[in-house]
Write a structure and sequence with these properties.
This protein has one domain: Metallo-beta-lactamase, Chain A (4-Layer Sandwich), CATH 3.60.15. The radius of gyration is 16 Å and the shape is globular. The protein has a seven-stranded mixed beta sheet with strand order 6-5-4-3-2-1-14, covered by helices on one side. A seven-stranded mixed beta sheet has the order 7-8-9-10-11-12-13. The protein has five helices and 14 strands. Strand 7 and strand 8 form a beta hairpin. It has 227 residues and is of the alpha/beta class. It comes from Sphingobacterium lactis. InterPro entries: Metallo-B-lactamas (IPR001279), RibonucZ/Hydroxyglut_hydro (IPR036866), UPF0173_UPF0282_UlaG_hydrolase (IPR050114). Pfam families: Lactamase_B_2.
Length: 227
């Protein structure tokens, strides 16, 4: 089981040969200039919400890969409006769980806002819990720290993908609390450095996590690590 980081909140999981992309945003991220979008060909795309820095490359990636796109109902409607075929879109909602060939994916609460790039209401922002063979992964999406995270503690999460940039989402301090809420000691940082308001001091953030006894992974853009 591997994950490749493409910057911002864009990550691609390789679940024993099935590739799952989250929040595709590469072309407009200056930090991801060395990533070749044409090389990204997932089987599934999951969207946490409709903001531009999470969906900008959805259509391009979907068209070149034929991926199935999953999202909350209203964001899924936007996906269809972009021309993605009906049988390639899965809409569902908070509390729902998809049973897919690689495992199960539960849609969970996120505290944020949501609109689509065309200015329409995007439904609720969400996170996802991936239940896989031998591992459980929490992808928080864009979120503030929220008590609802305590509900995920019972899932025995192995990895938590948490925003750490602050300003629009949790910062590192709140992400540490979030990791404690979900009872996970391995965090993969997302949603940082892409824009001036979310720049972080990596050395300071790594120190914060180390002092809390939580492992923090901050791979380089384009880097693949084993989970």
């Amino acid at each position: 089981m591997k994950v490749t980081y493409y910057g911002q909140s864009c990550v691609e999981f390789d679940f024993d040969g099935t590739k799952v992309l989250l929040d595709p945003f590469v072309t407009y991220n200056p930090l991801a200039k060395d990533v070749k979008l044409a090389d990204i060909k997932p089987d599934y795309i999951f969207l946490s919400h409709g903001h531009q820095d999470h969906v900008a490359d959805m259509l391009a990636v979907q068209q070149q890969s034929g991926a199935t796109v999953a999202a909350v109902v209203e964001t899924a409607a936007w996906v269809r409006r972009q021309g993605v075929e009906e049988d390639k879109v899965i809409e569902y909602n908070l509390g729902g769980t998809l049973d897919l060939p690689f495992g199960k994916v539960k849609m969970v609460y996120a505290a944020h806002t949501n609109s689509t790039p065309d200015g329409e209401y995007g439904g609720f922002p969400v996170g996802y819990v991936f239940f896989l063979k031998g591992k459980t992964i929490y992808f928080a999406g864009d979120t503030a720290l929220t008590m609802e995270m305590k509900l995920l503690e019972r899932h025995n999460i192995d990895w938590a993908f948490l925003p750490i940039g602050g300003h629009y989402t949790m910062d590192a301090g709140d992400a540490i609390i979030a990791a404690e809420f979900v009872n996970c000691d391995k965090v993969f940082g997302i949603h940082y450095d892409s824009f001036p308001p979310i720049k972080i001091d990596k050395q300071q953030v790594e120190k914060q996590f180390a002092e809390a006894g939580i492992s923090l992974s901050l791979p380089k853009i384009g880097e693949t690590i084993n989970l």
